[in-house]
Amino acid sequence: MSKRIRALLTLIFILLLGGCTDGPDTAGMKIYRHSLTGSPTSIDPAQSATLYANHVVVNVYDTLYRYKYLARPYQIAPNLAEALPEVSEDGLTYTIRIKKGVEFIDDPAFPNGKGREVTAADFVYSMKRHFDPKTRSQGSWFWAGRIKGMEAWKKAGSDYDREVEGLKALDRYTIQIILNKPFPQLVHTLAQGYAAIVPREAVEYYGREFSVHPVGSGPFKLQRFDSVGVVLLRNPKYRREPIDLAYEGYDEAIHGKYGIKEIDGKIPPLVDRLEIHFIKQSLSRWNSFTKGDEIQYAGIPKELLDDVLAQKQPDIVLKPEYAEKYFMTSGYENGFVHTDFNMRDPEIGYNKDKKREEMNHALRCAIRYAYDWDDRNKKFYNDMGFVFPGIIPPVVPEYDPKASRESLRHDPAKGRKLLEEAGWTTESLPTLTYGGVAQVDTRQMFEQFRGWLMKIGYPKEKVKLDAYASFGDFNRAVKKAKIKIVGMGWGLDYPDAENTLQLFYGPNGSPGSNNANFNDPEYNRLYEKTSVMQQSPERTRLYRRMNQIVQDACVTISGLSRRQIFLWHKDVISFPDQSIVGGFHLKFVDVKEAQK
Amino acid sequence: MEILQYALRKFITGIPLIIGVTLISFLLMVYFGPDKTYELVGKNPTPEQIQEVRHQLGYDKPFVTRYLEYLKELVTFDFGYSDSTGERVNSILARTVPISLALIIPGFVLGNLLGIALALVAAYHRGRWWDKFIMGGSVVGMSVSFLIVIIAFQIIFSSNDGLGWFPVRGWNVYNFWDYLRYVTVPTLATVFVALGYNTRFYRAVIVEEMGRDHVRTAKAFGTPPGELLFKHILKNAMIPIITRIMFSIPLVVISGSLLLESYFGIPGVGLVTYDAITTGDQPILKAVVGITAVLFVVVLILNDIFYKLVDPRVSLK
Question: How far apart are the C-alpha atoms of A119 and A173, rounded to whole Å?
Fold first, then answer.
């Protein structure tokens, strides 16, 4: 072999070895391989805006509160906190005691690399980070304007050594939060990934790279994080708290068949190694799932639903060959999809000319009558979605199953009549832009929508698609109120209808979360009134009234909660949840056999 | 010494090319690329928060200032931090480029070697059954979409519905055996598609070379087929072959293969680059574009040097 060829082969071999890494010894380890349909970019709690990010964040960090593993509707439980908060009579002062002896993982960020005890001051620091512009927090809106003195602290330069009046560590283990006005959902927000507790040393040690070097006190610690997955290892320092299944909401009728009883009394986390694979391609995910020794949890690809399911309605049933191998559960998402009209656009929304504003109202209602929910459900959601009137979805306690379904009625004739009565003609109808990210689904949804509008006499050329190259570009157009009709989805941060009602609160208009830019004085007044009320029949009544206002104004075409189906291997003991927060159940997942 | 002087001279003349490429791509990134701001703000941002993020991203600086900063980053090879993950761009590249190389090199090498071998056979049997068979196969390789090939190969070789011999996804590569398990199916898919293009191209080059006088003369002297093909034809056809291979290298090194990495769950640079393009992560894009431009200039130089090695008549002036 000539010297040149030998040198070339050696070079190639060295390059190939570059793809190898140090191997872990997994023999004897319990490994659970989860999968997600998307990937997080940052795992800094302050930027954990997605379910994907939360799957990692709530498993490597501690939050003061969490949701019970099995109880549905969701119930809050103390996590790092010793108990639920003590709340003052006026609902403004919260006192929370945290558990003693909980430690952060060992990390070079600490002196001698040894993780220290988590204290109340860490929580105070973690919350302050949200109001430091350098953090680029995506979760500050939960607490903006609510914690006494926080805005002033930010204005004064976000100096962490300066005290905030409404956020103090009274002693090493006691937190005090003072609010500007009552915020009944506060405890829910403290169960989110955003509220995870980080040590100041690690944030300062890693700087910008803290977002990929989590240092927490959660059940797991990070071993690897890249574009295709994350590998977490059991945190050996995690506090030893046996599982009390009765407390977690165990119901033999629901959970018995999954073998969950076996974990009662065990100490989480139950696996030594948790792998979360980010797999966007549904077929690849399915092939990996059915392979047997790869991922152990997945959904069913849309294109294979008929092959895998024996029945879709009313209950979902797997075909026997799949039921033999896999466990399955299904449920409606904690959120919904809806299509909003941009009320800031004078051609379809508010207008200085009151006559035109009335015409616009008729136009929006006519479009809503043109909308065919059954058809949308069949074509895009496998006829498994749950269609409900308004913006209070079925998963929250305030949902009204007896509410009028008029806003869901598909009646093109009535839509056409409304247009005529309001004085609209083919010539005078405005050109509508339907915005979305440039994807096949968006185009198909738009075509379906345009087809419906043509049935009420809308000229085809007056309904246009505004497709954006990326979500960022689409979001920019939405936040600048440039699109007339916006198809959106909302995932609830916590199970309280306030989280969806705020989507139509006037002061939250663009660039805020109120993409419809709805600004109704009566609605705003009720929102402000209910936002300080604890859960009660009166609050539910007012929520429902607000729901009706939105429907009467024809400001949105809403809504549909998608049905989710989860499958997992029978050697896994789990009750998956992907709706609230994301991944909070993973510390309770067990596998029957350790790696050989 | 002559080679070194030549390389230096050529690199200096390549600088305008690097500036041109980076300027045009930076213009596209800034004025036509996705706006990262609205990916980074939360669900309910205030106008001040939007301004703060724009400021941190440097979007409020004049274009010239930003471009000069980019050139400085390229010279110092310090591209800062990813706008998405916050990780150092250099760390990301150091982690992902070796994986992409390890993924792509076998397919790249085999695709080219087999392409040359098949092209030699086809050219030697030009117009006959072998030629038609090989060229027909090439057309199939060229016609089937890479995506379809990947999905089909994954089902055939990896899934339980097929042979199930290899992993469907992942890159748990800790030794050479693991490496073979994970790289085989992606390599087969790459070779299947690359062979079509490579064989057709190389056959055309070799056929042209076969018509030359010296080949006819060698044939007339009764030179055996092996010697004729390798010594008289292939050696003289090396210049276009080297050009094709060399110019593929920058893309192989830095771009990786998005489809392979996505479908086989491999954490290479292709996925990172794709995500950066779709989300407007400019620090990563600047690094990828800048390094690719520099690599092209280096490849141009190496290309000329290789020309001289295979053909002494070429002079480095």
Answer: 6
User: Would you call A226 and B103 a contact, using CB atoms and an 8 Å cutoff?
Assistant: no
Output A120 or B265, whichever has higher pLDDT: A120
| Chain A CB within 8 Å of residue B45 CB | yes
- CB neighbour burial string for A125-134, b if at least 16 within 10 angstroms, e if fewer: bbbbbbbbbe
Read off the pLDDT band of B240 (50, 70, 90).
Answer: confident
What pLDDT score does A23 carry? 56
Judged by a CB distance cut-off of 8 A, whether residue B39 touches chain A is yes
Residues ≥6 apart with Cβ < 8 Å to A370 = A410, A412, A415, A452, A453, A455, A456, A458
Residues of A whose CB is below 8 A from B28: none
Q: Which residues of A touch B271 (CB under 8 A)?
A: 227-228
The H or E element that residue B263 is part of is helix B258-264
Q: Do B174 and A20 touch (CB under 8 A)?
A: yes
A17 chain-B contacts, CB cut-off 8 A: 102
Q: What is the pLDDT of residue A21?
A: 54
Confidence at A20, pLDDT banded by 50, 70, 90? low
Residue A595 pLDDT more than 90?
no
- Mean pLDDT of the A89-117 span: 97
Q: Shortest Cα distance from B87 to chain A (angstroms)?
A: 5
* In the predicted structure, residue A343 carries a pLDDT above the cut 70: yes
- Whether the predicted pLDDT of A10 surpasses 70: no
pTM of the model: 0.89
Q: What SS3 state is found at A465?
A: strand
Selected for mutation to probe chain A from B39, B163, B166 (highest A CB count within 10 Å) is: B39
- Interface with chain B: mutation pick from A35, A228, A279, highest number of B CBs within 10 Å: A228
Chain A with chain B: Cβ pairs closer than 8 A: 190
B180 to A194, A311, A473, B184, B187: CA distances (angstroms): 42, 42, 41, 6, 10
CB A33 within 8 A of CB A275: yes
Per DSSP, A135 falls in state G
CA angle A513, A517, A520 (to 5 degrees): 115
pLDDT one-digit tens code per residue, A148-175: 999 999 999 999 999 999 999 999 999 9
Q: Which two tokens stand for residue A174?
A: 């006691």
**Cβ contacts (< 8 Å) between B171 and chain A: which residues?**
19, 228
Tell how strand A309-311 and strand A386-387 pair up.
Answer: unpaired
Please answer yes or no on whether B37 and A12 come within 8 Å at the CB atom.
no
**What's the pLDDT at B236?**
82
CA of A512 to nearest chain B CA: how many angstroms apart?
A: 4
Q: For residue B286, is pLDDT > 80?
A: yes
Report d(CA B301, CA B10) in Å as an integer. 7
Do residue B179 and residue A19 have CB atoms under 8 angstroms apart? yes
Q: Which of A21, A136, A283 sits opposite B173 (nearest CB)?
A: A21
**Bond before A269 cis per omega within 30 degrees:** yes
pLDDT digits (tens, 9 = 90+) for A506-517: 999 999 999 999
Give the list of residues 6+ apart from residue B260 with CB closer than 8 angstroms, or none. B103, B104, B150, B186, B189, B190, B266, B268, B270
Please give the Cα distance from B149 to B189 (Å, whole number). Answer: 6
Q: Which among B46, B267, B278 is the nearest to A227, CB-wise?
A: B267
How close is the nearest chain A Cα to the Cα of B47, in Å?
7
- Look at A291 and B168 and tell me if their CB atoms are within 8 Å: yes
**Pair type for strands A432-437 and A463-468:** parallel
Helix (H) or strand (E) holding B67: helix B63-76
Supply A418's token pair: 């409304």
For residues A127 and A179, give the distance between their C-alpha atoms in angstroms, rounded to a whole number: 14
